[in-house]
Amino acid sequence: MSSSPISVIIVGAGFAGLTAALELSRKSIPVLLLEKSPSLSQTLGDIISFGQNSSRFFAKWPGVLEKLDPIIHQSTEFHFHDWQGKFVTTQSFVEEHRKWGTRVNGHRGEIHQILFDQASAQPNISILLNQTVMSYSETKDSAIVTTSSGHTFTADLVLAAEGVHSRARSKILGYDDHSRPTPSGYAVFRAWFPSSPLLTSNPLIKHLVYPNGDTHNGWIGKDVHFLTASIKNGTEFSWVCTHADDAQIKESWQFPGSKEKALKVVEGWDPIVQEIIRVTPEDRLFDYKLVFRDPLPTFVSPEHGRIAVIGDAAHPFLPTSVQGASQAMEDGVVMAACLDIAGKDKVQEAVKVWERIRYERVHAIQKTGVQTREQWHKADWDAIWKNPDSLHLKREAWILDFDAEKVAYQRYQEVRKELESGEKL
Ligand SMILES: Cc1cc2nc3c(=O)[nH]c(=O)nc-3n(C[C@H](O)[C@H](O)[C@H](O)COP(=O)(O)OP(=O)(O)OC[C@H]3O[C@@H](n4cnc5c(N)ncnc54)[C@H](O)[C@@H]3O)c2cc1C
Predict the structure, then answer these.
(1) Distance 108 CA to ligand 1 centre (A)
(2) 250 pLDDT tier (thresholds 50, 70, 90)
(3) Fewer CB atoms near the end CB (10 Å): N or C, the chain?
(4) Domains and CATH numbers, the chain
(5) Residue 415: CA atoms inside 13 Å, Cβ hemisphere, count?
(6) Domain FAD-binding: where (predicted)?
(7) Can you tell me which atom of ligand 1 is nearest the CA of 162?
(8) Which of ligand 1's atoms lies nearest the C-alpha of 134?
(9) Which residues pair with 93 in a beta bridge?
């Protein structure tokens, strides 16, 4: 076996790319990470959630949990109301935290900055910002990317972690689906802002941030749900409102939102919900159209198997799955474990094993996003009043009580044999 280390290029420094980089680095595999943004912006994005299955990864990277602790949501209860404000049920997360560990929920920009700093500090991770990868190619021995500035980089393997607009998908598919996301029929208004307007404007909404510190509430109506979370001991506040919308636009995290339109969606709803929207600074409100992409037949380039798509580039998730970032991270962790086992001479084998370990799990979890939305949006209220807990988020052990790294090391050889015997995905 070759004694030189595997060389890996990662395209995109989101949670998929950074996790893959940190895990490869931890296993002494050097990484070149190319990111199109010229700098990071902590203001981009809002609430993002990591289930126990991915929160466990933060503990692998020294000092990261300590940095996360002061900025993540601390409450362990989720209070549900019907659309008119009648209390329905409280879901407690105490027991699952005890069994499976804690979750990490917080501001996407802030958590992202912590991981980015961690990756920047590793001597075997080189990060180049302001590098937009325009094309991917491969030979039987190497994978190549070319950036918009005309630079070419070569490695044993390229991991395309470029998010939903991935260019590498066309390399995998053999045709361009860059501009072909399918509208899901839903959109989300999203807001995050310092909670002072909730404290000062109307006593009706003060309890959401004071004296209760971090709180988590949901209001469920016909084809609409409205969720709130306060954070950092109630000093910051976020809300999301998912509603029917069939607009045909591209995915974007920074599409400006309109309070007037948001208020229209919740017309006649609990005055608390309407007041939250009224006090929201308009420049902190965004409108995000939710789109689907059909599942890819494979995550790996069919020609030489040296280019793989990971994270949202491979499998975008609906927010109601609460697993998009977690699955992006699992991709990186499992890839690093597979490459660690296989070594430089068997990079292509490692990538095929990785795909097989990931494919079924990712697509099964993707479906839970639709199930949760339907459970809330098409709720049978007579049945719910008889069994209020049926509104609870499904918290399933097969998703959350899962150690992706351990499973990868356990399953590698068995999966390799399946591949050798010609079993299909
Ligand atoms: C700015 C931003 C804000 C977000 N905010 C939220 C949020 O508030 N809540 C939430 O639940 N999810 C949010 N998401 C999505 C969430 O981070 C992802 O769904 C999930 O974490 C999967 O991550 P990913 O790494 O696969 O993709 P992403 O997080 O989308 O990361 C992809 C990365 O690749 C880079 N990139 C793209 N194309 C190229 C290219 N050609 N060359 C080089 N680099 C490239 C992008 O700049 C980005 O940094 C946001 C994503 C982004 C990019």
Answers:
(1) 10
(2) low
(3) N
(4) 8-74+103-180+294-371+395-420 (3.50.50.60), 182-292 (3.30.9.30)
(5) 22
(6) 7-339
(7) 34
(8) 41
(9) none
Q: State whether the beta carbon of 111 lies less than 6 angstroms from ligand 1.
A: no
Which residue type sits at 47? I
Q: What does pLDDT average to over the chain?
A: 93
45 lines ligand 1 (CB under 6 A): yes
Answer for the pair 255, 249: CB distance below 8 angstroms, yes or no: yes
Ligand 1 neighbourhood includes 16 CB (under 6 angstroms) = yes
pLDDT tier at 408, thresholds 50, 70, 90: very high
Residue 48 structure tokens: 């993002």
Strand locations in 222-267 (E)? 224-231, 236-244
> Which residue in 418, 419, 417 sits closest to 305, CA to CA?
419
pLDDT recorded at residue 179: 58
Which helix (H) or strand (E) is 66 found in, with range?
Answer: helix 64-68
Q: Are strands 307-309 and 216-221 parallel, antiparallel or unpaired?
A: unpaired
pLDDT per residue over 154-185, tens digit each? 999 999 999 988 999 999 988 887 656 677 78
Query: Is a pLDDT exceeding 80 seen at residue 279?
Result: yes
Instruction: Give the integer Cα–Cα distance in Å for 127 and 322.
Output: 29
Inter-residue long-range contacts of 412-415, CB under 8 Å, 24+ positions, other chains counted: 412/337, 412/338, 412/341, 412/342, 412/353, 412/357, 415/353, 415/356, 415/357
pLDDT band, very low/low/confident/very high, at 292 (cuts 50, 70, 90): confident
Q: Which residue type is seen at 78? A: F
Of the listed ranges 177-186, 328-337, 343-352, the one predicted with least confidence: 177-186
Give how far the C-alpha of residue 414 lies from the chain's centroid of Cα atoms, to the nearest Å.
29
Point out the ligand 1 atom lying closest to the alpha carbon of residue 167: 41
Q: CA–CA separation, 56 vs 48, rounded Å?
A: 16
Q: By three-state DSSP, how is residue 109 classified?
A: helix
CA of 202 to the centre of ligand 1 (A): 36
